Amino acid sequence: MSGSFARIGIIGSGAVGCYHGIRLGLAGLDVRFLMRGDLGAVRARGSMLISDSLGSAELRPVKAFGSVEEIGQVDLVILCLKATSADAVEGLVGPLLGPRTAILTLQNGLGCDEYLGRLFGNERILGGLVFMAINRVGPGEVRAFNPGMVSIGELDRPATARTHELVGLFKTARINSQVVENLLGARWQKLMWNIPFNGLAIAEGGITTDRICADPRIKADARDLMLEIQKAAAAFGFTLSDEFLERQFTRTVPMGAYKPSSLVDYLAGREVEIEPIWGEPLRRAQAAGVPMPALARLHGRIIDRCRVGYKPPVP
User: Fold this and answer.
1) Start-to-end Cα distance in the chain
2) Start-end of H helices in 145-215
3) CATH number of the domain located at residue range(s) 185-307 in this protein
4) Which fold has domain 7-181?
5) Which of 25, 31, 114, 150 is the least crowded, having the fewest Cβ atoms under 10 Å away?
6) Do 163 and 154 contact (CB within 8 A), yes or no?
């Protein structure tokens, strides 16, 4: 397939990276996955598997590599590493870059776009926000629980022709996607879900989203957090409507007993993206003069939980 993004490198082949890479590969793109733990299993099977609202599909053959040097230069890097892996980004992305290579980050929270801009130049950076429930269920195997949406914008500037081309490519790959004119505003939108649901899932001891929605006390805590995010976003010029706030609950209930990505990390004993998702929004809001008592409490509770680690309930 011709175009500006004919060759794509996926860095971070977890749930998000695998899902989008498989969809793009099924659409005929030259997609190259950087893999570590799953590499042997994926190569032995010779394929990657996806299950979503469109049904089940298999990407075969798969271009899976153990190093970025094997991947070589690409037209687009899709960065799906956890923000906790920031120290490794320069070494993993740098070897993939040609003169016109773009970088699309699908990372969570605030600050990742600016960090990549400092490393590689703002002109390369696009940010994507994944509003989708996706879990990795095996080596090179992912399941998406709802159709979801990917919103894509440019760092520190309105959408360009490049942005529209990339969104068109995603749509061709049957990934619901849209262009956003203000990437930072879109990130505040996503925090309306990520802060309460990822956060309370951990703070309450390791619970799924259905329990957050069903428990009146926890649901009230989630609403308080959303109201604070609404005020913080407004301080930066972004309007998050009351209708948008309520939609966070209505779209979450059908997910059932879903484990948000931060909860999956917490349960597995991996480092949680505390600062990008909770710490940085808290600091920015407070610096703008917006009181955030509910978020400050949640931030502290998550730090405490992660310091101790997950302890399964005693039967």
Assistant:
1) 55
2) 161-172, 183-193, 199-203, 209-214
3) 1.10.1040.10
4) Rossmann fold (3.40.50)
5) 114
6) yes
The residue whose two tokens read 């175009």 is 3
DSSP-based helix, strand, coil % in the chain, nearest 5: 50, 20, 30
Domain ranges of the chain: 7-181, 185-307
- Residue count (the chain): 315
pTM of the model: 0.89
Q: Is the pLDDT of residue 275 over 60?
A: yes
Within 8 A by CB and 6+ apart from 80, the residues are 10, 11, 12, 13, 14, 16, 17, 20, 106, 107
In which residue are the tokens 């917490």 written? 266
CB contact set of 194 (below 8 Å; sequence gap of 6+): 108, 109, 260, 262, 277
pLDDT in tens, 205-234: 999 999 999 999 999 999 999 999 999 999
Least Cα distance to 232 among 156, 299, 286, 300 occurs for 286
Q: State both tokens at 121.
A: 């130049």
